[in-house]
Amino acid sequence: MSKSINGTGVVAGVAYAPAVWVRPRPDMPQPGASIAEDARDSEFERFQQAAEVVAGRLQERAAEADGHAKEVLDATAGMVKDRGWHKAVKKNIAGGHNAEYAVVGATDKFVAMFESAGGVMAERTTDLRDVRDRVIAELRGEEEPGLPHIDGEAILLADDLAPADTATLDTTHVKALVTELGGPTSHTAIIARQLDIPCIVAAGKSLREIDSSTVIFVDGALGTITTGADETEARQAVADYKVRAEKIAQWTGPAHTKDGHAIQVLANVADGNAARLAAQSQAEGIGLYRTELSFLSANSEPSVDEQAKVYGKVFDAFPDSKVVVRTLDAGSDKPISYATLDDEENPALGVRGLRIARDNESLLTRQLDAIAQAASQRSDDAQTWVMAPMVATSTEAQWFAELCRERGLVPGAMVEVPAAALMADTIMPHLDFVSIGTNDLTQYTMAADRLSPQLAYLTDPWQPAVLRLIQHTCIGGADNNVPVGVCGEAAADPLLACVLVGLGVNSLSAASTAIAGVGAQLAEVTLEQCQEMAEAAIYSPGAPEARTAVRALLDGYNS
Ligand code: PEP
Ligand code: MG
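C-alpha cells for the assembled complex are given below, as produced in the milestone run.
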C-alpha cells in the first residue's frame, strides 16, 4: 500500500529511485575527563592533523569541480584552516578539554558571532557546523559525514544539506532532493533550482521513517514523497515529465497562453552578474532587482555616484528592456548596517523596507537620485520602473510615487502587506504598476515566519487566503488600469503561474532558471482554463487541496 509524506515542494519535477540518506552528523562530544597538562600539545597536534586531512579532502574535491561548486569547496576548506578557529580550539585544549570537545566549543563561539552579525553571515553557520562535524568524525576515525558514494540513481534524503554537500551533486546519479528541515529559500532549495532537479523541503520528522534503499516517488510540484507507489504508474509519470522537460527546453518565448493572451515573463536578480545570466534566458526584462542585496556587507551608505555604478551594471544587461528596481528592502532577515535599526524585538514586523525612509527620507531620495542617474544613461526604449517594498497604506504609496515622479521615474509598489492588497482600490490611483511579493504576502497573511521549517505548510503561496488577496489586488489593478505583476517565488511554479494568470496577473518575475518552465506551461492552457483553475484554487480548503484540484483540472485538459 502506498503512503505519502507531505513537505513543501520547491522545485517541480518527479523522480522514482531508491532513497539514500546523507551520512549522519556525528554525535556531539561531551566534556570527558580533563587532558593532562603535558598531553595538551599533542592533543592540539591531533586536532591539527585531523583538520589538515579534512581540508585536504575538500581541496581535492575543489580541484575536480569548477564554478560555484569550486568556490564553495574552497571556502569550506578555508574555514577548516581558519587561524582564528584553530586559536579558539587551542585555547579550549589548553583549558584541559579533549580535541573533539574543544572543536565544539570553538565552533559555538563562531556560530554565535556569525548569528549576531545576522544576514549573509548568519547563513554561513551551516558551513561552520559542517566543518565542525567533519573534523570531529575524522578525530574519531568515523566516516566523514555528508554525501555517500552513489552508484546508479538515487533520491537524496537529509536533515538539511550543507553547501559543501550540494556543491558537487552529480545529477546523473542524484534525481531529487528531500530534506527534513529547510524552507523555500534555504540553500538546498536554491541549489536544486540551479540544478533543476525536483526538491522538497520541510518534510518533517516522518521522513526518518524512510530507510536508505527504499524506493520512493517524489513529486516536487505537489511536495509529496510516496513509498509503495505503483511502479508502472511511477515510471510513467517520470516518462511524462521527461516529455514536459523537452517542451521546456524547446520553449523560446515570449510567453502567452495557448489562445494568445500575452503574459510578460521577467527575471529576478540581485546584481549585474545575475542580470547577465538572466539576459541569456527568455526573460523579457527584469521584474525584480533586489538592490539591498548589493549592500549587505557595506559599512556605510555608498555615495549616489557609487550606487549609480552598481545599478548601471544591471541596466547594461538589458539595455533596451524593462527593468524594475526595488528600493532598499533593508531590515528583518536582510540587515544593512547603515539603514537598519538593531534593537527591534520583532524585525519582520518592524522598521523594514519603505518604513525606514519615514524617519530618513534622504536615504531613499539619494537612492532614487542614483537610480535616475543610472537610468539617464539608458536608451529611449528602455523602461526604468521603481517600486517600494512593504507599502501598507495609500498615503505611503502617494508619498513614494511623488518622489519618483519628481525624478522622472515610473513609480510602483510591492503588494506584500495584506493591508495593501485589501486597499488596492485606493493605492492603485497613485501608481503606474504594482508587483505582488508572495513570499512576504504569504508570511503576513498566514502570520507565519517565512524562515520557519515548522510552519512551511502555512507559508505556502497556494494558501487560498493568499490567492484571494492576489485576486483582490488584480481587481483593483484592472479597475484602475494599473498592471499587476507577481515577483515572489510563487511566480516560479508553473502550475501556480496558471492560477495567477487566471486571477488576472499581467506579468510574472522569477529566477531565470524557472522562466522556461513557466512559459512552456502557460503555452499549453487557455486564459479561460487559467480562470477555471484559479476558481478551483481559491475555493479549496487549503494549500494541498488547491494544488491537487488544479493539477486534476490540468490533467483533464491534456487528456
Ligand atoms: C516577496 O516578499 O515575495 C519578495 C519578492 O520580496 P523578498 O523575497 O525579497 O522579501
Ligand atoms: Mg518581500
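The domain at 37-140 is CATH 1.10.274.10 (Enzyme I; Chain A, domain 2). Residues 389, 416, 437, 439-440 surround magnesium ion (ligand 2) (CB under 6 Å). Further analysis is deferred to the final report.
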